[in-house]
Amino acid sequence: MTRKTYDQLRSSRWFAPDDQRSSGHRSRTMQMGYDPADWEEKPVIAIINTWSDAQPCHAHFKDRVEWVKRGILQAGGFPVELPAMSLSESWVKPTTMLYRNMLAMETEELLRSHPVDGAVLMGGCDKTTPALIMGAISMGLPFVFLPAGPMLRGNYAGKYLGSGTDMFKYWDERRAGTITKEEWMGMEAGIARSYGHCMTMGTASTMTAIAEAMGLSLPGASSIPAADANHQRMSTQCGRRAVEMVWEDLTPEKIITPVAVENAVTVAMATGCSTNAIIHLIAMARRAGIPLELDDLDRIGRTTPVLANIRPSGTQYLMEDFFYAGGIRALMKQLGDKLDPSAITVTGRPLVEGLEDVKIFNDDVIRPLSNPVYHEGSLAVLKGNLCPDGAVIKPAACDPKFHKHVGPALVADSYPEIKKIIDDPDYPMTPDTVLVLRNAGPQGGPGMPEWGMIPMPKALLKLGLRDMVRLSDARMSGTSFGACVLHIAPESFVGGPLALLKTGDLVELDIPARRLQMLVSDEELAQRREDWVAPTPHYERGYGLMFSKHIEQADKGCDFDFLRTEHGRPVDEPVIY
Ligand code: FES
């Protein structure tokens, strides 16, 4: 392997020349108390830190960044912390998805505009992982992704509680009147009791697993609980490795190959895979110039069973149990030859290297292929006259009786409208009703909010029912469950066929046949198309206007059209005077 020399590093162009501009760079670095020995002949490693007071999942990053710096210093690098927006899933409105691409752009431009040779990316709360990685891929510098790690198991009255999943489940009970306010307050306090991201196999855990399976994290990093001392050690190792990667010129394009992406999809399917992960996987792959399609995900899903017995696909265990059972490396071992051995990671070594020595400490948590949680990957891609460009559902997380279903649509055009329906205990509907929320896609939401797991209507809760078929062009939280068809594309706000559906129309869902149809004649649909009036756009200025002009549909990964790789690799080199 040829190693880079110092004068080949980007940062040397800022610091090395004997001219007035470089003198200013050196002088202003010394203004902060640094000495030339801090940067001379050393790679500058950016630490993109998504810590903020508004990000509970990354509360430990203020401490962990010091461990990353320690690793960079140990390996002979110069650490530079660059804060980026923290995108808290629990605080940001209307949805963090509105801002995923903004963080991706921020990451790319932070790296481009500063004297940086490589990076450690610190993220974990849902959108932060794809956003940081998308931006860093487009910039093309060597980087390591450091996952925040899951929080400890939730606990109330001696029972485990899982982020999101149990909140949704028990909220239906609260609405059904079976849980007191006092008990509910106890759950609120017990469900998130340490820093770290959600500890179900929701979007955060799926995305960090995907990052590791794609080769972008150190082996085993994504399973370490945030509050475990292994996380400090992993942080330091990331710092050290980022320095070495710069000298080795181990850029993302050498790691993110088509086989690395297929491995990432395979691992995602075996984890139980948040539906959100589909959108992010497509967006990340496309940034790397790999045209991943929904059909690829369905193809890999059909032959990859769910092996991680973690909620919401599993019924009992959480990410802490997953770590103790052997973590993501144990899951990769269980996958055996389903992983392509030619893919490499940030170590420069094959992803599968060392798996033969990995131990599986609990094969009920991390199941063998012979005893899966679910016989296929947890996601199915549907097509039909309601979703010509696709829709997704998690068959493993819904009542099997809905895998084939025909029922009458009950359509709402907005969240307030659906809220009225679900909160009215006497609203006319039957267990067969297909509840529909539209205008909740990328443009309609705006930002494709996580409204897709529409809460069960009180009218059905009082009959003792806890699941029904629901359709929308929204997303749902990765911790959600139920017979929810999501990501319907094209979305209704831009005139997708969902816009033409009327209350009372029969809807057919057939998961084994991968079909979603409205049983309405083509002539009738053509007439409705003529009568359709486009809704008023949400934005007239600012980021929102840019978002609505350039956001792509869910099946394309919801990236901005002008950031696609076919527009050419970004120009890495700023002009330095
Ligand atoms: Fe941050 Fe769930 S709220 S990962």
TrEMBL record:
SUPFAM superfamilies: IlvD/EDD N-terminal domain-like, LeuD/IlvD-like. Its EC number is 4.2.1.9. It is an enzyme of class 4 (lyase). One of its GO terms (molecular function) is dihydroxy-acid dehydratase activity. Residues 364-558 form the Dihydroxy-acid/6-phosphogluconate dehydratase C-terminal domain. Keywords: Iron, Iron-sulfur, Lyase, Metal-binding. Coiled coil: none annotated. Belongs to the IlvD/Edd family. Residues 42-352 form the Dihydroxy-acid/6-phosphogluconate dehydratase N-terminal domain. Signal peptide: none annotated. The keyword Membrane does not apply. It comes from the Bacteria. The lineage of its organism: Bacteria, Pseudomonadati, Pseudomonadota, Alphaproteobacteria, Hyphomicrobiales. This is L-arabinonate dehydratase.
